[in-house]
Specification:
heterodimer, A: alpha/beta, Rossmann fold, 3 domains, 7-stranded parallel sheet, 46% helix, globular, B: alpha/beta, TIM Barrel, 5-stranded parallel sheet, 49% helix, binds cobalamin, binds guanosine-5'-triphosphate, binds magnesium ion
Chain lengths: 335, 674
């Protein structure tokens, strides 16, 4: 268990100050180094995170966090590559960050991060930033590191796209993080049925059937999906209240990209499409508490401890407050 | 009539005879068209009858010599070809109508064939008289060799266009040559070699059938034009069986799947280059014996003997061969063919129950694999899904594991490593071939001159036509030949088609791979401990970007290093070959890595590392992110590279991946403690 410092210094090293100043201008390396702070598990990094977040206050954006998830090889990265270019073509003043999360090896803890293969971004364009992340099971679990990084990115970018693989757990994770979640499917893949069994179909806000290179394929897939979704009471009908949209795309033939782009631009400019940041924060604090103090800790957190937090506090300060309180309530913890 | 015995070859006339040897081939081309033309004329005057042309990587990847990405590569591993004017010089004084010209060209195969046809027409040579081969097997480019340009479907269309054009206009041209050679070099087992090469041929023939451009007789002839380029490694008994399996399977496939009636057109015709992957940098003189043994696999069995053979040289793992090195390899062939009695006997393996049984097993396994790929949708689909590439990377990882674990013995490498120093590498030039750096200037000037003197309107019209026909279903050959005559450049031709078809990056195959290194292997345990300490100290997992800048397609090393790094416990960013230094630096910055690992085997490391450091410097990261380099990096270059800033250099001698990983951790820790 990490020992927690109670207070944060107001002082920043000149190096960090400089990094923040340059990251605000989306300079790649300084920004990348800040991101690393949000992925690093040391007291110093925690202190720095607090400093970074404090100095971004005021000037910050509240970017749209878009989760893109789906089966391996469905074309998520290719699609993201196309979408980014198309979004910028439509609205050149946008800044977009992509965070591609890949699973770590159970055996070695290492990971191969290969999603860059599929994006063909212009070089040295500050409006586009691509970062890979390992899900890193041993350093805090899937969502946490990703959540931490989105805390930073959403202050700096208009759109933050998170790519994750998977069916099941990680999908629910990404749904927590994202303001809007898209599930990418392949046409006519038998795996749709599996999704439904797992009760996952309710999770995504939008469906994308990619690899619809030919129109006939697109049509067939659309109808198949529609019938499948009916079985789980999800409706695609636009006029229905809890209905969801479907997009049929081909990343390679660049079909359906325009429609999806316009849809995303709408989400971006609609401030109601932002999850409540505090709820999100509490969700991750809760996760952290559970990890550090177990079920019992989580119960305490939800029942009472939560109320001691104030909205002025940074995430890191909240962590500290919670830690102190927990230590008092669970005496065996204080060493 | 005297009674015939079983150990003598009898001719059609019933008289005893002996076989003629296979064709001895040397693959050649370097520096520029003038130097290469002189080389060819010299070889021809010594009795060589065919040409086997090596093109430089820019030409192979569709860039003119004046493109920035081409600059480090001009004339390095082959001759640069920019326009028809270059071809006029290359073939000056060489009678096209007498030549059998083989071109190792793939992504730009249609362009090079167009140049050849245009050259013949401008010289007044009857096009139908031309003979030769364009390698033009794109599936193996995506899987192993790396000089692809367009997406698989468009590549298949160009291949079929060439088959269609050739059969009607240049009946003795082999529009493509299906290669299993490169697959073995990328790690393929004999079964994978058989299966993936035959899948490739099926994919091409299916596409030709679908085009429906031939009548039955023409289609049979077209099948007859399909030839193969095969590999043979050290396990020569298995290799000879593989060759027999190839012959039988091709006969069966062409008969059963395509109904070819004429047995002549079902014959498996193949040329060979023997295995180079297994040739060592350690005690390189041993390679001479290896090459000889590998040669047996493709010559012993008369029924499955190769038509043409080219051999690597003893210094394969050090640099390009010098003329003497090539001569020494040629002597192996001559000695085998002329001093031994090999060519006096019928098939000496016929009736061997051992061989027969082995052939049967190989065939069964290969058919299973072929059916698997066909079920996945065929060759193109199995490229796009990464199925075949993953299979190769997996085999290569296993091989690396066996070498590191000592389960596969390689003399001088992981066994009997002590020895006396070799006098061969103590030559004045260290056994290394160097290309004259100034020669590129002449190429650039010639390109400039052609561009200055050509008819711009004709160029423009030719390119517009090329673009339009590319968008249509028309056969592209005629438009392409007109481009050649108009003095369009290699870069312009490719760029036009890139704009229509798009560019393609195949899957890297490294996803989900593991190294089969024992968990208790000392160097693995040691590197994992270093990584654990690092995580405890710095609060995150070390990150490495593995980069392949430039046009070098040798991906094995980068793939193995990526897989090994993940196995050790790194977070690894690897996104394939043919990236620019700028791409790699940008990814290193965005990913905020602890080390940049560059892999280069094309001989252009000096120029490319300079570019890379310039780019790092521009971003203020030159001394902040350590850079290491691996690949074919000749000793004499090490000092200069280290002066530029390279922290460590790895070569084929560093074959134990976990030892390499340990050293990488040392580099990272040195940087951290600065
Ligand atoms: C296999 C091979 C091929 C295969 C490549 C398959 C593939 N997908 O990789 C094929 C058949 C396709 C091929 C093609 C060509 N090849 Co080749 N090929 C070789 C060969 C025989 C072995 C290389 C290899 O894969 N070794 C196994 C891997 C695992 O080892 P490695 O790459 O050396 O990596 C190890 C270390 O070097 C180090 N390392 C390497 N990179 C890195 C990176 C980091 C970060 C670290 C830490 C360590 C590290 O660690 C690795 C593990 O031990 C070499 C000669 C030789 N024996 O080395 C020639 C060689 C590299 N090829 C050569 C040539 C000329 C070509 C062609 C140009 C021929 C032609 N004209 O068509 C083409 C070009 C293809 C292209 N697009 O670039 C020349 C290069 C000459 C030069 N440098 O001056 C060589 C040296 C042969 C020769 N003597 O002529 N080739
Ligand atoms: N035919 C076709 N192929 C596509 C399309 N989009 C992607 N692909 C191909 O599908 C393969 C996988 O694409 P990726 O973009 O890497 O898919 P992904 O979902 O990000 O994959 P992972 O991150 O590995 O799970 C690649 O070979 C792509 O070229 C499409 O619209 N049509
Ligand atoms: Mg992806």
């Amino acid at each position: 268990m990490s020992k927690n410092q109670n207070r944060f210094d107001a002082m920043m090293t000149p190096e960090l100050r400089d990094m923040i100043a340059r990251a605000k201008h989306l300079e790649k390396w300084p920004l990348a180094r800040l991101i690393s702070l949000f992925e690093t598990n040391t007291e110093q990094a925690k202190q720095d995170r607090h400093s970074v977040m404090s100095s971004l206050k005021g000037s910050a954006k509240n970017g749209l966090i878009l989760g893109i998830t789906g089966t391996p090889g469905a074309g998520k990265s290719s699609l993201i590559g196309e979408l980014c270019l198309s979004l910028l073509a439509e609205k050149p003043e946008l800044n977009i960050a992509v965070l591609a999360v890949d699973p770590s090896s159970q055996r070695s803890g290492g990971a191969l991060l290969g999603d860059r293969t599929r994006t063909n971004f212009p070089i040295n364009d500050k409006r586009l930033f691509f970062r890979s992340q390992a899900s890193d099971l041993d350093l805090g679990g899937v969502g946490k590191k990703t959540y931490q990084v989105t805390r930073l990115l959403r202050q700096l970018f208009d759109i933050i796209i998170i790519e994750t693989v998977g069916i099941g757990q990680s999908e629910i994770e990404v749904e927590q993080l994202s303001d809007h979640t898209c599930l990418v499917l392949q046409p006519l893949a038998g795996d749709q049925v599996q999704f439904m069994k797992a009760g996952i179909m309710e999770v995504p806000d939008t469906f994308i059937i990619n690899k619809c290179d030919e129109d006939s394929l697109a049509k067939r897939s659309y109808h198949l999906l529609k019938t499948s979704l009916k079985l789980v009471n999800v409706s695609l009908n636009k006029h229905n209240e809890n209905s969801k949209s479907v997009f049929l795309t081909s990343a390679t033939k660049q079909k359906g990209i325009d429609e999806l782009t316009h849809f995303l631009l709408q989400l971006e400019s609609d401030s109601s499409v932002r999850k409540d940041r505090q709820t999100q924060e509490y969700f991750y604090l809760g996760k952290w508490i559970q990890q550090e103090f177990g079920r019992f800790g989580l119960t305490l957190f939800n029942q009472s401890v939560k109320t001691a937090l104030t909205s002025q506090q940074s995430y890191e300060e909240k962590e500290n407050t919670l830690f102190e309180m927990m230590k008092k309530m669970i005496p065996s913890l204080s060493r | 009539m005297t009674e015939q015995n079983k150990h003598t070859i009898y001719g059609k006339d019933g008289k005893p005879t002996v076989d003629r040897p296979w064709i001895f081939r040397t693959y050649a081309g370097h520096t520029n068209v003038w130097a290469t033309n002189a080389l060819y004329k010299d070889n021809l005057s010594k009795g060589q009858t065919g040409l086997s042309i090596a093109m430089d990587l820019a030409t192979q990847c569709g860039y003119s010599s004046d493109h920035p990405i081409a600059k480090p590569e001009i004339g390095k591993v082959g001759v640069p070809i920019n326009t028809l004017d270059d071809f006029h010089v290359l073939f000056e004084g060489i009678p096209l109508e007498e030549m059998n010209t083989s071109m190792t060209i793939n992504g730009t195969a249609m362009w090079l064939l167009s140049l050849y046809v245009a050259l013949a027409e401008e010289r007044g040579v009857e096009v139908s008289q031309l003979r030769g081969t364009t390698q033009n097997d794109l599936i193996k480019e995506y899987l192993a060799r790396g000089t692809y340009i367009f997406p698989p479907e468009d590549s298949m269309r160009l291949i079929v266009d060439m088959y269609e054009y050739s059969l009607h206009n240049i009946p003795s041209w082999n529009a493509s040559n299906i290669c299993s050679y490169h697959l073995q070099e990328a790690g393929a087992t004999p079964v994978q070699e058989l299966a993936f090469a035959l899948v490739t041929s099926i994919t091409i023939l299916d596409a030709i059938k679908e085009r429906d451009c031939f009548n039955e007789e023409e289609f049979e002839r077209c099948v007859g034009r399909i030839s193969f380029f095969v590999n043979a490694g050290m396990r020569f008994v298995e290799e000879v069986s593989k060759m027999r399996a190839f012959c039988e399977m091709w006969d069966e496939i062409t008969q059963e799947r395509y109904g070819v009636k004429n047995a002549k057109y079902r014959r498996f015709r193949y040329g060979v280059q023997v295995n180079s992957l297994g040739l060592t940098a350690e005690q390189p003189e041993n390679n001479a014996w290896r090459i000889l043994i590998e040669t047996l696999g493709v010559t012993l069995s008369r029924k499955a003997r190769c038509r043409a053979l080219q051999l690597p040289a003893w210094n394969e793992a050090l640099s390009l061969p010098r003329p003497w090195d090539q001569q020494w390899s040629l002597r192996i062939q001559q000695i085998l063919a002329y001093e031994t009695d090999l060519l006096e006997y019928p098939d000496i393996l016929e009736g061997s129950v051992v061989i027969e049984s082995k052939v049967k097993e190989l065939k069964e396994q290969a058919y299973t694999e072929i059916n698997q790929v066909l079920e996945l949708g065929g060759g193109v689909e199995a490229v796009k899904s990464g199925y075949m590439k993953s299979a190769l990377v997996s085999s290569q990882s296993k091989r690396m594991g066996r070498l590191a674990n000592g389960e596969q013995i390689v003399v001088g490498k992981n066994k009997w490593v002590e020895g006396l120093p070799s006098p061969l590498v103590n030559d004045g030039d260290g056994g290394i071939f160097m290309v004259d750096a100034k020669a590129a200037q002449k190429t650039l000037e010639a390109l400039e001159e052609t561009k200055r003197t050509r008819d711009d309107a004709r160029v423009k019209a030719a390119l517009v036509r090329l673009e339009e026909e590319a968008k249509s279903d028309n056969n592209l050959m005629e438009a392409s030949i007109e481009c050649a005559k108009a003095r369009v450049t290699t870069g312009e031709w490719s760029e036009t088609l890139r704009n229509v078809f798009g560019e393609y990056r195949p899957p890297t195959g490294v996803d989900g791979q593991n190294m089969s290194i024992k968990e208790d292997n000392a160097s693995l345990v040691s590197v994992r401990a270093k990584i654990d300490t690092f995580i405890k100290t710095y609060g995150y997992r070390p990150r490495i970007v593995v980069g392949k800048p430039g046009l070098d397609g040798h991906s094995n090393g980068a793939e193995m290093i990526s897989v090994a790094a993940k196995h050790a416990g790194f977070d690894v960013i690897y996104f394939g070959i043919r990236l620019s230094s700028v791409d790699i630096v940008q990814s290193a910055l965005e990913e905020n890595v602890d080390v940049i690992g560059v892999s280069l085997l094309s001989g252009s490391h000096n120029e490319i590392m300079t570019q890379l450091f310039e780019e790092l410097d521009k971003n203020g990261a030159k001394d902040a992110i350590p850079v290491i380099l691996g690949g074919i990096i000749p000793e004499p270059d090490h000092v200069g590279l280290k002066e530029q800033g390279v922290k460590r250099i790895f070569t084929p001698k560093d074959f134990d991946p976990m030892t390499v990983m340990g050293e990488i951790m040392d580099v990272i820790n040195e940087q951290k403690s600065k």
